[in-house]
Amino acid sequence: MNILICDDDKEIVDAVDIYLSQEGYKVYKAYDGEEALKVISENEIHLLVIDVMMPVMDGIHAVLELRKTSSIPVIFLSAKTEDSDKILGLNVGADDYLSKPFNPLELVARVKSQLRRYTKLGNIAEEGGNLYTVGGLTMNDDDKTVEVDGEKVRLTPIEYNILLLLVKNAGKVFSIDQIYESIWNEQSVGADNTVAVHIRHIREKIEINPKDPRYLKVVWGVGYKIEKQN
After folding, report:
1. What is the β-pairing status of strands 2-6 and 47-51?
2. Do 152 and 117 share a structural domain?
3. Distance in angstroms (rounded) separating the CA atoms of residues 59 and 92
4. Are residues 61 and 111 in the same domain?
5. Domain range for residue 213?
6. pTM to 2 decimals?
7. How far apart are the C-alpha atoms of 15 and 132, rounded to whole Å?
8. CATH code (residue 25)
9. Cα angle, residue 92 at apex, residues 91 and 96 outer, rounded to 5°
C-alpha cells in the first residue's frame, strides 16, 4: 500500500517514513499541499497523511481539491487541538485527525485502521445478494456502490460504512456512541462532533434537501436512523 506524507517539517516526514516503512508501506513525501496533489496525480496513493498549516498551499485547501476527484482516506496532523479545528478538518473531507505532538505508534495504528476500511470498501465480494434498498436509495455491498434515484453517489469509506450500518438496520435508532464504536472499533470518547460531521456529509450527498431529509433522520436526544420507506 502506498502512503503519502505531507508536512513542511522534514524531520516529522522522515520520522513517520521510518515507522510506516517498517510496517511494509511504500512511503511518498511532500512538503506542501501543491506538491502533495502533484504526487497523487502521478502515483497510486492509498492514504494521505497531511499537516494542516503549511506554506504555498495548506492542508485544508489541498484536501478540498483532493475531494473533488478522490475518496482516499485522509489523516490530518495539526498542532491545533481545539474542537473547532478538528471539526474544520472533518468538514473538508478528512477521515481522521491527530494532534501534534503525537505518538508515531498511534499514527501507525490509525493508518492501518483507515486502510482496512478503504481496502474493504474497494473489494468486490465473490457472492452476490448484498443489495439493500430503502425507497430510492440503493447500496450494493458487493461492488460498494451507492445510488439515489439511479444516480451514483461518491462516499468516503467512513461515510459508506456509517450509511451501510443504518441502511442494513432501517428503522432502528443508533446512538452516537453506537455508531462510533461500530465504525471506528474503539471506545466513544467525545465522539459527538466527529459523528455529526460525517452524518451531515452523508445527508448532503444522498438527500435532495439535507435540511429536510427523507432518509437519514435524527431522533432528538437519542441518535440517528434511516427512515423506512413505504
Report:
1. parallel
2. no
3. 10
4. yes
5. 131-226
6. 0.61
7. 44
8. 3.40.50.2300
9. 75
Extract the C-alpha cell encoding 220.
Answer: 432528538
Confidence of residue 162 (pLDDT cuts 50, 70, 90): very high
Strand ordering across the sheet containing 137-140: 131-134, 137-140, 145-148, 151-153
Instruction: Find residue 47's DSSP bridge partners.
Output: 3
* Cell numbers placing 200: 451531515
- The answer on 115 and 135 residing in a single domain is no
Find the mean pLDDT for residues 167-183: 90
Contact partners, residue 214, CB within 8 Å, separation at least 6: 135, 207, 208, 227, 229
Mean pLDDT of 42-69: 90
Look at residue 190 in the predicted model and tell me its pLDDT: 65
- Dist. CA 96–CA 128, nearest whole Å: 31
